[in-house]
Each structure stands twice: as C-alpha cells, then as structure tokens.
Design brief:
By secondary structure, the protein is mainly beta. 7% of the residues lie in helices and 42% in strands. It is built from 6 helices and 61 strands. The protein is elongated.
C-alpha cells in the first residue's frame, strides 16, 4: 500500500529578506522504510545561517528522533549549501549560494539533497529552488569599440555591435539598449530566426569626414530588475574613404555537432563571407565577436575554419554559441552565429559512495540483515548514465536498489566465521554505454565469533626423540593444537593425562607447559632400561563450558656413542701370535685376511671404518675402509721383506668417534722353509730366555724334516691314483701356498676353485691330544680353510706357549687332503693328533 500527500504553504517567513517561501511536501510510505520529499524555495545570496525551513515539522519527525537517528544531510557532489540544525529541526544556509555559479542560464535552479536517519534507516529527498535576484549588471566584452566608416557609405549601412551579457535570468536579465544622441546613427534591435537578439547601429545620415572626422558614442545596456542596473561601452567612429561594400556571410546561422571526446585540432566547420569590392578592400578577415570561448575553439582569420584547441566536456557544456565577424580592410563587417552542439560519449565511470556500513556483524546474523547503504551515480546522460549494480553471486549476500541511485547490501544465507572469518565484497557498477565503464568498490566485512569449536591437534599421534643421559629439565618436544574460534574461546591450555608406565606415573617422567605445550624431562633416561614412552596430552580452550581433545606423544629414547669398537678377529694375546701367508706370486688384489670388529652401539654409532696406521711409502697392502679386507695393492717384489706387520685402526661413525687397533702379521714367502727361517722374528715379546729360543728352533727343524718325509711318502704310495690329477709340486722340497680366505669369502684371485669355503679353529690345550674344532670362530693358534671337495689346501703356521711346555703346531692341508688322511694314522712317533685335515706335531 502506498500513500501520497501534498502540502502547500504560502506565507511571509522573514522580514529581513522579504521573500515568500513556498513549501511543497511529498510524503511516500513504502513497506520496508519511510521516504519523504519536501520542496523549498529561497533567493540566492542569503547570508550564512539564514532560515530555510522547519524540516522536522514538515516531515512530521520528532526532534528526539532526529537526534537518536543521527540525522544528517547527504549530497551526491559532497558540497553542502544547506545545513541541518538537529537541535531545532531546521534547515539553514550553510554556504553562500550564487545561482549564476550554480546553474548558469538554466532556470529554474534547484538544490537536491537527502536527509538520512538511522535505526531504523530513513531517507528523505529535499529540493530547494534557488530564485534569482538582480545582483549582476549587464557587461560588454569590450569597454571600447572602434569603427572605421568610409564617407562614401550611404545611409542605411548597418554595423553589428557586440551584445552585452547579463548572467541573471527572467526579469533581471538583459532588457534593452540605448545609444547616446547622434545625428548620424540610430540603434536597431533585431531578432534572428532562432530567437537570438542582436543589435545594430544604423547609419541614418551619411558621414562627412570634412565636417567631423570622429564620432564618440555611448552604448548603454540595461536590465529589467528593480533597482535597474546597466553597463556601457564607448564607440569611436572614425570616418574614412574609399571602401563602400561590406562582407556578406553565405548564411546567418551555422550549426555543427561535435563529440565531447574530439581531439585537439579537429575541424568543426568553416564559415564563408564575400565582399563585392576588389583588391585589398575585398579581402575578408574572420574573428570571434563577443563571447568567443577562445580557450576551446580557434578560427583561422583567412579561411574561416573553426578548430578545437581545448578539452570538451558534455557534462559541463552541452552547447556553444559564438558570433563570427567578417571584416574587410575598410571595416565593413557582417556577422553570423555559430552553434556547436556537443554530443555525449561514455567517458565517465559510475561513482560508488558508501553512506552507511555495519562492520563487524555476528556470525549468527539472520538472513536479510542490512549491512550497507550505497549511492551509485554516473555523470553521463541517457543510456550512458544508466547503471546496473552487482556482486559476486557465490557470496552469501544480496544487493538491490531501494530507490533512485540508492542500493542496500543485505545478508542472504547463514554465515560461519570458522569457515570464512571475513568477506571481501566487491561491488561492481557498470553503465550501459558502448564501450561500457565500470567501477569496483570492495568492502571488507568481518564476522564476530561464538564458541563452537574444540581445540584440534594436527595428528592423533606424534613421534619425539630424546638422547639417553639427558639433563633433567631438558626440552623434549612442543605440541601444538589449534582452535578455529577467536579470543578467549581460542585460548588453549595443555595438560598431562597421568597414566602409569611400569608402575610409575608419567608425571614422574615428563612435565608439560600449560601455556605453550612444551614437554620437559623430569629425569635422565637410560636407553638400556627404557626405550619408549607414550604420553597423553589434553588441550582445552577457554570457552564456557570448555571444549577439549587429546593426542598421544611417543617418545623414543635414542642411543649415545659410548662404546668403542671390539676386534673379534684376529684375536691378540700375549702368549701366541698368528701369521698370514702370502705367496710372492700373489696377484694385485690378493685377499690376505679380514679384520672383523663389532660395536655394541646402534645406528651410525655402530658404522665401522678400517684404515692402516702409517703405511710405508711402497706399501704392499691396503685395507678396505668398509669391509676390513686386507689385500695386496701391487705385485710382490724381491725387495719385500718376508715378515710384514700391519696395524689396522677400526673407528666408528659416532660423535665423538671411538676406535680400536689390531696388529696383523703377514709372511711373504713361496715355501715353508722360508717361513720357518723368519718365524722367530714374528714374536711380540723380545724378552724370551735362551732355553725357549733353543727349543723353538729345534722344534721347527724337526717339523720341517717330518713334513718333507711325509709328503714324499704320500706321493710315492698314492701316485697311481694321481695320474690324471694336476700336480702342485715343482720339486720335492717346495709346496704351493694357497691363499687364506676369511670366513664366508670366496676366491677373488680369478681361479674360481674355491666355490665353498669352510673355516675351522684348532686350539691347543694342556693336553695336546685333544682338539676343539668349532665352525666360524677365529682362534689365535690357527685357522684352516678347506673347500667342500677337499681339493685345495692352506697352510697356516702358529706358535703356542702354554705354561712350561714349548710346542710348535703346524697346520697344513695338502692336495688332495683325502689321500693325506689315508697315509697318516694316529699313534705315529711324532704325530700326536690328526683330525679333519688338522695335523699337530709335538716338538716338545
């Protein structure tokens, strides 16, 4: 339902100005708001503070409502000529109002603005008509006019005079002209076909230069105001001879249309005038007469072509009217009028003004809540000034037009701050011009929070590590939880959920900082006692009631590098030593032996590397840095000593690293006697007594003799079985030396004969008649390698000193070993024990 009411009130409002105020009140009632329209009329040039109207009374609004609603004036251009006194509910003049400056020649002239009230929001349109007073006198563009008139000019000659300008309108505008008395000239006021007024000075009586050479006249222009105002211009007429024809324009009015975006130099039109005279008297010069807009247009004095020299703006001036004068050298003139219409182009983008904005709003605001009130306007006209307004359709908001140029922004759906805490609402205003212009304005709307979210951990379970032997109070781990809420609702505190580990409460092991979730050790951990802890942490927010969630932290105790490597092989003892044999024919890369070591630490602390301690300049051997294998790095030469002593350093990868060392004795020889000749040099103890040295030499000699006899006997008895076998002896006194391969390592020399290798240990006891044979464990006395078929042998010489007994053991294997088994029997004079290719000869 809509209601329309009009109230017209005529009366004498003030004695100072003595003007009448007419009030036209238009009231409109609309469903979701109240909008009203009031119209006043005041004269221009009122002093500041002058009374305009009682707006509270005319709108029917209470003074208290105007205060509580924060009533204010809104103008689209931002300039307030009319102010609002909310204490009295009156409209007053705020700034000087000049009707001519405000509207120019347009009449009627009105001010349009709105009065806005909030809570609830109301919008009232106010129109104030500014009436004209006679505050401007007619003014001529020039104060003096000089005319050269030939004496031959006959009566009736006309001379166009420049019109005066009066910016007032209506009865206060220009009313007429009068010319000072003269016997030669009269004033003639004419109207053109388009209604424009112009004045001419008509020669009534021919001039006589001989009688009077100059005529001084006064032209007066007066308006119709009360009191009347006027302006004057001096006219000096100089009488000359000869020229008796005036230029004549081809038409009295020229018209052209020009778009407002015309560039400088654009030709508008060309005026043309002809003079019947010949020669210099027939030359015509063109110029603007009166108001010329010389800052915008230029006329070529010779051709009469008018061009654009300044910016055009349809919004400021829609039409230009100019007088063009054509004059010859005798000052005969003619005039025409040029009318240039400026056409509108879409050169203005819409302007968005934010009038009211509610920010922030609660996240549980109901749909339809008003967020903002906006004013959107385009300065262009027609279709170019029509504007459509929109926002992103994916946003939960809606924008709609509430009245002309006014729009409201409201919520459309339920909002959720935790999902989207704020919205950037971009309002787009697009005009309908071609090409169209658009303007964007972004409003940042924030949502206020309510407590509806519990703290959340990134994971349910977190791993953490701490080094054993840590300091008490050491920081172990920091756990973090997040809460989608804000403020106190998002303030999180951390608590330890106390449980038992091996009968001890977890609070005895770990403490947690309630503010930052940092975990600290309550005691020093021992990796050997406990390797892992499971701690449960609760995160609780500061809401009411509080919300919480739990997470588990698995703390793994890591090991420190607190153990040095241990060498398992070769075993170093003070009572016996082992020598590894390398034949002089050994190839490069020949595997001598393998150093075996372990580290009880874990991880990289147990990663071992091997290196030789101070190798000589022409080193014969090298050790693998990763596997501990000792190999030859060159061919054996005659200059190489028979005995070689290598010191191997074993180092772990811990920080700081730990190391161990082991001595490896190597015998470089092709024959067993050669080894025996140097055998005594492989001792670790140089303090043996003379008796021990004597018995040792004797034992070696006996063993050597028995060895040679045994070999000859075996070969002679079993030679018929070896007719198809390859012999490994070059003579009866030399034996081939087969390389020694450490546990689980095959031949790398390229022969391919050791496909399966077995390792045995022969360890002597106090009773030399018993031997302990074990698989895979090295022994300081001897190590024997035997392939699966028993077709290859290795000789290893060892020495043992047990108590008062001096005993030399020679461990050897002959090819093939099965024949040696059959040729030697237990109980021989010198053979004390033979088992699985193991021969012990007692030299004691």
């Amino acid at each position: 339902m809509e209601f329309l009411c009009f109230l017209v009130n005529d009366g004498n409002i003030g004695q100072v100005w003595k003007w009448q105020l007419q009030i036209l009140v238009l009231c409109v009632y609309i469903a979701n708001g109240v909008y009203g329209q009031v119209r006043y009329s005041i004269p221009e040039e009122m002093v500041k503070g002058s009374f305009v109207g009682n707006i509270a009374q005319d709108l029917g609004v209470d003074i208290k409502r105007m205060k509580s609603g924060r009533a204010r004036v809104f103008t689209e251009d931002g300039r307030e000529y009319i102010g609002l006194n909310t204490d009295k509910g009156m409209l007053i003049v705020k700034e000087r109002i000049d009707r001519e400056e405000l509207c120019g020649p347009v009449s009627p002239c009105s001010l349009h603005f709105q009065i806005i009230l909030e809570n609830p929001m109301e919008l009232h349109r106010i129109d104030v008509e500014i009436t004209d007073i006679n505050d401007n006198a007619p003014v001529f563009a020039k104060k003096e006019l000089r005319l050269n008139i030939s004496e031959v000019v006959g009566s009736g000659a006309r001379y166009l005079l420049e019109s005066a300008e009066d910016p007032d309108v209506g009865v206060n505008s220009l009313h007429g002209y009068k010319l000072s008395s003269s016997g030669n000239f009269v004033l003639n006021q004419q109207s053109r076909s388009d209604g424009a007024q112009f004045i001419e000075m008509v020669l009534q009586t021919a001039l006589d230069r001989e009688k009077q050479e100059e005529h001084n006249l006064i032209l007066t222009a007066f308006d119709g105001g009360s009191p009347q105002k006027s302006g004057t211009m001096k006219i000096l007429v100089i009488v000359s001879d000869a020229n008796d024809n005036a230029p004549v324009f081809s038409q009295s009015v020229y018209k052209a249309q020009l778009p407002e975006n015309a560039s400088k130099g654009t030709a508008v039109l060309k005026v043309s005038a002809t003079d019947a005279d010949k020669g210099i008297n027939g030359e015509v010069r063109y110029s603007f007469s009166g108001r010329s807009f010389s800052d915008v247009f230029y006329i070529d004095s010779l051709t009469g072509e008018i061009k654009v020299i300044g910016p055009l703006d349809f919004e400021k001036a829609k039409q230009y009217e100019m007088n063009v004068k054509a004059a010859d050298h005798g000052d005969f003139t003619d005039s025409c009028k040029v009318i240039i219409e400026i056409t509108d182009v879409n050169d203005n983008a819409p302007v968005i003004t934010l009038m009211s904005f509610s920010n922030p709003i609660p996240e549980n605001s109901a749909p339809g809540t008003v967020i903002a009130l906006l004013n959107i306007k385009d300065l262009d006209s027609g279709k170019n000034g029509e504007v459509t307004c929109s926002i992103n359709p994916n946003l939960p908001f809606r924008i709609a037009s509430s009245s002309s140029n006014f729009y409201t922004l409201t919520t459309e759906n339920v909002l959720d701050r935790e999902r989207i805490p704020e919205y950037n609402i971009t309002i787009t205003a697009v005009d309908k011009g071609s090409p169209s212009y658009s303007t964007n304005k972004t409003l940042t709307l924030k949502l206020s929070d309510i407590n509806d979210n519990a703290p959340v951990f990134e994971r349910k379970t977190y791993p953490a590590h701490v080094m054993e032997n840590n300091a008490v109070g050491a920081s172990i781990f920091t756990i973090k939880a997040s809460d989608a809420d804000t403020g106190n609702n998002a303030h999180i505190s951390y608590f330890l959920v106390d449980t038992e580990i091996n009968g001890i409460l977890t609070s005895s092991y770990i403490s947690v900082n309630a503010e930052n979730g940092a975990l600290h050790a309550m005691r020093s951990f021992d990796y050997e006692q406990i390797k892992e802890l499971q701690i449960h942490i609760k995160a609780q927010d500061g809401g009411s009631p509080p919300l919480s969630s739990n997470a588990t932290i698995i703390i793994v105790i890591t090991d420190q590098n607190d153990n040095a490597p241990q060498v398992l092989y070769p075993v170093q003892t003070g009572g016996s030593l082992v020598a590894e044999m390398v034949p002089r024919s050994a190839e490069v890369g020949y595997l001598v032996t393998k150093v075996v070591a372990v580290d009880v630490d874990s991880g990289q602390n147990a990663w071992l590397s091997y290196k030789l301690l101070k190798p000589p300049e022409r080193a014969l051997f090298e050790v693998g840095s990763q596997n501990g294998e000792i190999r030859t790095i060159r061919q054996v030469s005659d200059k190489d000593a028979v005995k070689q002593k290598l010191t191997v350093i074993v180092e772990d990868n811990g920080q700081p690293p730990h190391s161990a060392s082991v001595n490896v004795n190597v015998a470089v020889a092709d024959s067993f006697p050669e080894i025996l000749s140097e055998f005594t040099d492989f001792t670790h103890d140089r303090d043996y007594n003379d008796d021990l040295t004597f018995y040792l030499i004797l034992a070696l000699a006996v063993v050597s003799f028995l060895f040679i006899v045994s070999i000859i006997t075996i070969l002679s008895v079993k030679c018929y079985r070896w007719r198809h076998e390859r012999m490994f002896y070059k003579s009866g006194g030399n034996l081939p030396i087969i390389p020694y391969y450490p546990p689980l390592y095959a031949d790398v020399g390229g022969t391919g004969t050791l496909r399966h290798v077995y390792n045995y240990e022969g360890c002597g006891t106090a009773d030399s008649r018993r031997s302990d044979l074990k698989y895979g464990r090295p022994c300081s006395q001897s190590v024997i390698s035997l392939d699966a078929s028993g077709t290859q042998t290795l000789m290893h010489v060892g020495k043992e000193n047990e108590g008062d007994e001096n005993r030399v053991r020679i461990f050897f294997y002959l090819l093939p070993i099965q024949y040696l088994n059959k040729s030697l029997t237990k109980g021989s004079n010198l053979i004390q024990e033979f088992q699985q290719g193991f021969l012990i000869i007692d030299a004691g």
